[in-house]
């Protein structure tokens, strides 16, 4: 990084705000509501959220910090991403999803009035972090002067999947333009005309705004949203890195995007163009384009093989998947669900998810492998009165002290060391040793070692649902008066 660029970054003191919401249904079956695409290790073994955090760390050299806005259910996934990116930050937890206007209002109300806030979606892919940083700095003069600054990607093809921003006159600073208009996602013929027009950009959903500017704009254009968020922040509680807005006030808030609620009505909105590579990773076609094609246009991720096929994308990280004689197909293989779709229907995957939800298909929202703050478990097999899970506990982590009314459990250690509380006794188990937890007995599983603990759990009983858990103590603040998930 050049000395001048570093001086500019230090001069403006930008605070990144990462918007971690979204269910990611367009990338089903890899992305699901319980584990959306921003948390999936999709690129080079890292999640899109981790890539985003690493990209914005340049704005606080020496002491990276960020504010993440996320759902309560995803709080520990966000913390893990912060650790992986080596970025310090706080996490504001929305009781319910209320779209970007409310999320950005929470951030503005949590910040000092003079702070420059850089709002970034958590699920975009921008490989050139240096070019991204230069783009943001180009927007700083306008943002510091009181404008709402948005960033637009120079379009490379007539996309119907993105909204567009029409540029107006050049601002006096010479680094940004006034926004002439926002254009909805167009039909194909309109998109072609827009591209030929030459003064439009794709709307990237990235914003740079002084906190006080955003507060005033919300108060002017969306006073009901601003008031609800004001009440929610005033009644917020804090727990370590977590900030929880007062739920009643926030639940009452109207759900609307910041584009509709504020930007389309505001007089002073500037746009800075970005000519670098960018993707919102918003469909399987977009994911496919992250892979290099072969001579027939096939793109392979994992153990796929395309034979006599053209323009076929295969995502197969777990087992061999062969496409024979196919054309223009998307094949997405996961341990418990398979998607085969025409590439021309990639934008309609979310409709499939909605259909699966109406049929109460568990795979619509839940993976077989489920992340937990202490590690994860994988449901290997299940029958009428039994269930088998593979459980991994991180070093130093422990599950809650708990009991079950309807099931007993057998635990077999296959790797590492387990410290087990069972009633009034503590037992230390190593590889190839096992124990039995009778129904109704208080118990706890802990990893006292420095390597991961893996064990096989066999549950048996009349009811095996995840809501048959009563907690007595919990490291992660999940004690509830009613039984809750593990």
From TrEMBL:
The keyword Transferase applies. Transmembrane segments: none annotated. Residues 305-354 form the MannoseP isomerase/GMP-like beta-helix domain. The keyword Lipid metabolism does not apply. One of its GO terms (biological process) is polysaccharide biosynthetic process. Pfam families: ManC_GMP_beta-helix, MannoseP_isomer, NTP_transferase. Keywords: GTP-binding, Isomerase, Nucleotide-binding, Nucleotidyltransferase, Transferase. InterPro entries: GMPP_N (IPR049577), Man1P_GuaTrfase/Man6P_Isoase (IPR006375), Man6P_isomerase-2_C (IPR001538), ManC/GMP-like_b-helix (IPR054566), Mannose-6P_isomerase_type2 (IPR051161), NTP_transferase_dom (IPR005835), Nucleotide-diphossugar_trans (IPR029044), RmlC-like_jellyroll (IPR014710). GO terms for molecular function: GTP binding; isomerase activity; mannose-1-phosphate guanylyltransferase (GTP) activity. Belongs to the mannose-6-phosphate isomerase type 2 family. This is mannose-1-phosphate guanylyltransferase. The lineage of its organism: Bacteria, Pseudomonadati, Pseudomonadota, Betaproteobacteria, Burkholderiales.
